[in-house]
Amino acid sequence: MSHAVDAVDAAAIALNDRSWTPSDHELTLARDFFTRRDAMPQRLLPGMPMSPSPQGWVTQHVLWLEDVAHLAGELLDAWRGWLPDSHMIGLLGAYGGLARTAAPLAARLGRDWTTEWQAPPSKQQTSSWEDWHLPTEQRQQLDALTDRLVLIGAVMVMAVNRGETGH
To answer: Are 121 and 50 in contact (CB under 8 A)?
Structure first.
């Protein structure tokens, strides 16, 4: 985690003191990440009903984090050779690494869901299932993780804005 924080801090400081203006390649990487991330569909576990809430089930957010981590990994693999010492690579690595911390939870939820439901449950049963499998403390941890992702994403957006305007 400290390496990821260091990468985010380093990028934010470099933007602030104007020692880093993202290159066209860095801008392409960031835009591609944001475009693909924002277009990701919300996944449901097999047989899971649609949530009555516009935010979706908490499980959907956990699965989205897993998908975002995979996307970040793909982009890092493709771009690291082109931008080896890039702050944008550091930011994307921090974002993906943090999102990846939800992967064990996503795997556990998937296993538990498959084990416990042979027929599709109702929305009420699904809500109760989430309450049991995602207790308050775990939801608070997910909220904290999401807040940190928002901060990293904000630094990435600042970088894109700086790269597009040059100042």
So the answer is: no
